[in-house]
């Protein structure tokens, strides 16, 4: 015996099955995105973290090199002038090496920032050289002043002798 509403029952069953599959697929898609999207986001964040770690490592190395150059520049005041040319050569070489390790692949502000720092060290080195040459000139001026005073005294003595003769 077949029921009279067999078509309606089948239609209702297929509607139920369709809605059931639609609901289950929506839940599966939601679960998929819940787990898949964060994994992609985590991968992206890990890549960014690696870039930041590399930058921090570079900054640490750059700072150590800067400190070494600063110590060499400061030691210019403590050495004799004959050795200053040799030390200047070493400092210039270190500054050039520092410029070579600056990453050029990013054209952001950081490249200009690091290059400006190296240029400031070059200007500091030039200023130290100028200061040293001015100190030498100052010593020469002091020597010439004492010599001038001696000549002045000798001239006074000579004038006295000429008056008495």
The number of helical runs is 3
End-to-end Cα distance, whole Å, is: 167 Å
Shape: rod-shaped
What's the total number of strands? Answer: 0
What percentage of amino acids are in beta strands?
under 5%
Determine the mean pLDDT: 87
Main sheet summary: none
Write up this protein.
- This protein is mostly helical.
- 87% of the residues lie in helices and 0% in strands.
- It is built from 3 helices and no strands.
- The protein has helices at residues 6-75, 84-100, 109-164.
- The model has no long low-confidence stretch (mean pLDDT 87).
In short:
With 165 residues, this protein is mainly alpha-helical. It has helices at 6-75, 84-100, 109-164.
Tell me the layout of helices and strands.
Layout: H1 6-75, H2 84-100, H3 109-164
Helix pairs in contact: 1-2, 1-3, 2-3
Essential attributes:
165 residues, mainly alpha, 3 helices, 87% helix, 0% strand, rod-shaped
